Amino acid sequence: MRTVFVFPTGERADAAASLDRHLPEQRHPWTLDGNLYIDIDDEQTGYLFSDWDPEDVAILEAAIGHHPTWAVLIDISGRIDGTAEVHQMIALLLEHGGVATDDYTSYPWTLPEILSGVVIDGLSFFDFRGYHELNSEHGRS
Hints:
Blueprint: E1 2-8, H1 12-22, E2 30-32, E3 36-42, H2 54-64, E4 70-76, H3 83-93, E5 98-102, H4 111-116, H5 128-137
């Protein structure tokens, strides 16, 4: 599984309501075509940031101007590419602002950056192919 963390502006309840509207009759997790598994996690009762480097949390805090206490997690099945589906969910969740992070960079991506294909340190958002190419070139996996 690959994971994307989404930190939308607004309240947690607003994100849940949006997911309920677009992915009705399911929750814990919401699913998109059985390939994306979407849930909300937090620090107080969940595992948000439990395996993050403190430096990556600091980068996120600087990007959004505060320490977020919850996020929408999107787990993407390895059975599919997932790029189009992830972009679909990101567009929905970041419609009013916020950032998203992926497994491949510590950069907090905005929706305009994601949609326009901005490249940071040789990678765009959710660029698992580019990540593996870069790491195989450098002898890492």
